[in-house]
Amino acid sequence: MTEPNVYWAQLLKKIREESGLSQRQLARKCGIPQRTLAEYENTTKPRHLSIYRVEKILASMGYELEAMLDVPVDELGC
What we know:
Blueprint: H1 4-18, H2 23-30, H3 34-41, H4 51-60, H5 65-68
């Protein structure tokens, strides 16, 4: 089973890349530092994420948190 922080790191990176956004663009869009976003996407040592932060990042890309809760890791293609 994948650790929750690694799951969210993989999910956020995958969605960002599919949206055609750089880390810098997404960070500006959701009002967080690019370095923080990079730490969130780091699957080797993922930073702890609050569910509220995940929701904010997803919303800035047009996704709803509820739709992402049941996405299996193997479907992420990471």
